[in-house]
Amino acid sequence: MAIKKSDLYSSLWASCDALRGGMDASQYKDYVLFMLFIKYISDKYADSDDFAPPVIIPKGASFKDMVALKGKPDIGDKINTQIIQPLIDANSRLARSDFPDFNDPNKLGEGKEMVERLSTLVAIFQKPELDFSKNRAEHDDILGDAYEYLMRHFAQDSGKSKGQFYTPSEVSRVLAKMLGIAPDNTTAKTTAYDPTCGSGSLLLKVAAEAGKHITLEGQEKDVTTAGLARMNMILHDFPTANVLSGNTLTSPKFKDGEQLRTYDYVVANPPFSDKEWSTGLTLGESGAGDAYQRFTWGVPPAKQGDYAYLLHIIRSMKSSGKAACILPHGVLFRGNAEAVIRKALVQSGILKGIIGLPANLFYGTGIPACILVLDKENAAARKGIMLIDASRGFIKDGNKNRLREQDIHKIVDTFNKGETVAGYARLVPLDEIASDKNDYNLNLPRYIDSTEAEDIQDIDAHLNGGIPDRDLFGEDTALAAYWQVLPGLRATLFRPLRPGYSQLALPLAEVKSAILGHAEFAAFNTQAHQRFDAWKARQLPLMQGLKPGDHPKAFIEQLAEDLLASFKPLPLVDGYDVYQHLMDYWVETMQDDVYLIAADGWVAKPERIIETDKKGKQKDKGWACDLIPKPYIVARYYAAEQTALDAKQAELEAASSQLAELEEEHSGEDMAFSGFDKINAAEVKSRIKEIGLDADAKDELAVLKTWLKLSEQESTLKKTVKALDAKLDQLAHDHYAQLTEDEIKTLVIEDKWLARLATELQGELDRVGQTLTRRIRELAERYATRLPKLIDNVVALSAKVDEHLKRMGAVWS
C-alpha cells in the first residue's frame, strides 16, 4: 500500500527528533537531508539498467550498505569513508563540503550515544514504505515535496539569522509564474539562472512551470547551502543542473568568455540590503572597474546592495529575457544613488511590474518585500508598469505569514490580464511615474490606495434620526453590490424618511430573517448551487476515472481551475474564496486520498493500528481505513444501527448526568453523602444496610436508593452501549470486503469529497447574508437614538447620580 504524503512527512520529521539536542536545526538539517538524498539516489539509481545514470552509486556506497553499519562502533567513520567519499569520487558535481561529518562527537555525541543516534536515523529511513524507486518526479514530485516540507520546518526552527537558505515555496511559485514560462514556449535548451540560488527552490519552481527538463544554473555564496541545492536538484530529478559556489558579484562563475552568460529566464532572492556587497570590488562613480559593465546606470550605495544584485540580473538577461527578483520595499523609494538607478530602470522600459508582498513572509527577516518583474523583449514599447499591492492577502502560519493558494492565483491572474482592481492593482503610465509629483518614486501607496474607507458620522442623522442614503445606497459603499443583485430586498428593508435619509421598514430583530427568507436571496442561493452542480457534472468523469499512474497535481489543477472559473462571475461571493476551500481540503485530506488511488487504485481495506511503546511492547488500538474512514460506511449502510446506538448513548448521558446532580445536591454537610470517602455501589449498599429501619433516616434512605437505582441503570446502559458499539464496529469492518469499486467511488467522491465542498460553499453563502445583516444592524443602531434623546438621557442619569450623592452626604464640587 502506498504511503500517504502526510505519513511520509511525519516519518521524515521523526528523523529530526533523533538528532535534536546536540545541535540546532541549521546543523541537523544537513544530516537529515543527506539521509533523504542517499535513500533516494539508492532507490532510483543503485540498481538502474541505465548505461549512464545521472548519479553513479559505487559498489558498497548505497543506502543498503549504510544499513549494514547499524550498531557498529565505527558507524560514523564508516559512513564518511565508505559511503560519502566514494560518492564524491564517482560524481564530479558533488563535493565533500556538500555533506556533513557523520563522525563529529560534538554534534552526534561520543561512543554509544553516537552509535545509537545514527543507527536510529538509518532505521527511520529503512521503513519499507519509504521506497522511492517508483517516484514520478517529473509530475508528482513526492520526494521534492518532502524536501520542501523539511526545508520549511528547518527554516522555522533555525530562527531569524539562519532562515535565509529557504525562499517560501509560495513566493517561489509567484516568481516563476510571473515569468510567463510554459511548456509551449520552452525546450531543453531553454535556460534559467539564479545568481543567489540558496537551496535551489526558485530554479525548481521555474522548471516546474516549464513542465519539462530545461537547463538550470545557479550560484550560491554559502558552500554548505550550495551543497543543499545540488542535492535538491537531484531529488527533484534534475541531476544535470549546475550549481557552483562563490560570490556572484565579485566572482561570477557563469561566463561566456570574459562576459556574463545571458539567460532566457532569471530569478533571484538576494540577501536584503547586503552591506558587504562591494567587498572585493573597486568601482568608479560611473561603474568603471567592473569587468562586466553592470553598473553603467550608477553604483549602488556601499551599505545597500539591493540594486547591485538587480543590475547583475539585468546584465544576465538575454535581449528577449525575462526575470523576477525579490527585494525589500526600500528599492522603490530610497533616494540618492538608488534614485538615479531607479530612474534609469524605469526609462529603459525593462521594468514590467511590481508586486508588493505581505510583511513577515520570509524566515530571515520580518520586513515587507516586493517582486520586481523584468522583461527586455518588450522594453521599447512599454508604456506603463503594472503595480499590485498584495500586502493584505495572506494567512497567519505560526509566527509567520503565508500566501494562500487564492493569493497566488489572484496575483498572477491580475498581473497577466493587466486588470485594474480598486485598492489592489493598476497599470500606471510611465508619464505618471515620471511626473514632477512622483519623480520616479515607485512606492505603491502613491499609485494604489489600499486603505479601507472609514464611515463618516452624519450629524443630521444623529440629530434627527434616519440612516443616510449615502451609506445605504451609494455606489462606492459596501452595500452597493448587494442591491444590484437584490433590488427587491432593498425595497423590503427600507422606506424613505426624508430627502437623503431612510429608515428600516421592519423591526431590527426581523432583518436577518427577512433577508434569508426573501425570494431574491433564495434565487441567489439557487444560482450558486446550480453553478456547483454544473461544475460537479463536468468534473465527475475526471474523478470517477482516476486510476493508478495518474498524476495528482494535474488532477487537482483541473478541478480547481474549473471551480474558480465557475464562481468568479457569481456576484457577492469571492470565487477565490471558494477556490481556497478546495485547496485547503486538498492539503488536509483529498491529496492523500488521490495519491493512494493513483498508487493502488480504488481499494479500501481496513488496517489494524498497532502501537509499539519504548520497550517494544505492541498494543492493538483498533482499525482504520484512510480512504474511507468508518463514519462514511456507517452513515451510508448502518444508519439505523447508529441511530439506535446514539439513542442509548443519550440515555446513558442522561443517567450519568442525573447521578452527578444527585451526588452534588446531597454532598454537603449533614447530607446523604457527607460521610462517604468515595461514592460507589458497595459504600451505598453498606450505608443502606446500616440505616436499616431507622425512621429518622428515611430521607437519607430515599436518596441512597435513588442513587443505587440510577447507578444500576447507568451500568446497564454502559454495557448496552458497549455491545452496540462493538457490533456496529464489526459490521462496518466486515462491510469493506463487500464493497464494489463503484460503491467505493460513491463513498469517496460523493459522500466524502463533494459533501465537504458543498458544506463549505453553503458556509460562503451564509456569510453573504450574515455580512449584509451585520452592516445594516451597524448603521441602524448607530442612528437609532437621536442626539436630543441622548442628551435627555444624560440629564436624567446625571440627576439620578446627584440624588444618590446627596443621600450619601457627598458634595459635588
From TrEMBL:
Residues 10-125 form the N6 adenine-specific DNA methyltransferase N-terminal domain. The keyword Ion transport does not apply. Keywords: Coiled coil, Endonuclease, Hydrolase, Methyltransferase, Nuclease, Restriction system, S-adenosyl-L-methionine, Transferase. It catalyses: a 2'-deoxyadenosine in DNA + S-adenosyl-L-methionine = an N(6)-methyl-2'-deoxyadenosine in DNA + S-adenosyl-L-homocysteine + H(+). Its EC number is 2.1.1.72. GO terms for molecular function: DNA binding; endonuclease activity; N-methyltransferase activity; site-specific DNA-methyltransferase (adenine-specific) activity. Residues 638-672 form a coiled coil. Residues 139-455 form the DNA methylase adenine-specific domain. Pfam families: HsdM_N (PF12161), N6_Mtase (PF02384). One of its GO terms (biological process) is methylation. Belongs to the N(4)/N(6)-methyltransferase family. PANTHER family: SLR6095 PROTEIN, TYPE I RESTRICTION ENZYME MJAVIII METHYLASE SUBUNIT. This is site-specific DNA-methyltransferase (adenine-specific).
